[in-house]
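Our preliminary data section would be incomplete without showing what the modeling component actually yields. Below, a chain of 431 amino acids is followed by its predicted structure, encoded as tokens that our downstream tools consume directly.
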Amino acid sequence: MLIYQDIIDKKTKLAVIGLGYVGLPIALEFAKKVSVIGFDINAKRIEMMRKGIDPSNELTSSDFENSDIIFTNSLDELKEAKFFIVAVPTPVDEHNVPDLIPVTKASETIGKVIKKGDYVVFESTVYPGCTEEDCLPIIEKLSGLKVNSDFKLGYSPERINPGDKEHTLTRIIKVVSGSDAVAADEIAKTYEIVVKAGIHRASSIKVAEAAKIIENTQRDLNIALMNELSIIFDMIGINTYEVLEAAGTKWNFLKFQPGLVGGHCIGVDPYYLTYKSSELGYESRVILAGRVINDEMPLYVAKKVVQHIIKNAKDAMGARVLVMGATFKENVSDIRNSKIIDMIKELRAFSLNVDIVDPYADCIELQHEYGFPLSPAIGKNYDAVILGVPHNEYKNLTEEYLLEITNANAIFADLKGLYRNKFKKLSYWSL
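Predicted structure:
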């Protein structure tokens, strides 16, 4: 049940299911070398990609050029493939419980199209055991096929970092795993077609799943520590970034910074691990403690801004606040799971008038998802300006400009510390 050579020789096709931030770059990279089917259930997105437009605004039209790829939402066309890569999102719900609907629906799709000799590789972030315990039974039931004897299964965690033009698919080591030795070998060789940085072969699918989930859990916990330190140092009256600079002179000090933790990975993946551990009878303490701290930071920032306004003898009711940046991280257009949005909601709950600007976010999408739009322009007479997302467009602000758009005694809340020690007249605060 070998497949690598057929893919290289274009005797068969490789399919990517789910063409978002993760799936589309994978599909287009493979399409430079082999025949690819890009599958997504969203017909509107399919039409955009057929025109060389990335709905996620991460890729340019030139990235679509010279690609042997068809974009479709047709199961009949999807059946032409024999190597399937699943790259659908795996979010959590409002109770921070893993939402497996996208990945189980993708499994149903595969169950309807898979044939003897085919390969299925999941890239979606899941808890250890999900691929084999939740997805595989769906595929086997709908297809009537059995893993290893009829088809092969694998897991290769995605490491796409939106907005990062350096750590791209081809330049980072790819972890791969398979349901048996043949699967692992063929999957590794297939990914080697595009990944130049090298392949790490995990000993099992569960190991590969666990490796992915702890990458982001580790970052989450380290950022949570920085956030807690920021709260403590603020009470003491010293600047967190100055402390980190001093501590960072030690050779083995890990250089993390405080901040709002959003997006689809760091703020989500730890809940998949704690959900699984709870199922097994172990209640996580360290991981969940970090999540609590990071999830509470938007309220903490909002309270600091409100406290400053009240201390300066102004009724917070109706005070004006400008928030610069609404996306989940700098230089991307994605607003999903943006903790800036949570902070804005808290500010509005204090009856503040909040203007929101962002050069990347889509006004209509923001209105649809959260019920408030971007402001048409930056106004004046603000009692607070919050630099929430350090987009490139916000890296050259001057104190003169900020003084022009703010009232006397206004605060400039610089969450990432970009302008520390640069302003003399404006009240300044950072995490």
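The mean pLDDT is 95. DSSP finds 14 helices and 13 strands in the chain. Preliminary results of this kind motivate Aim 1 of the renewal.
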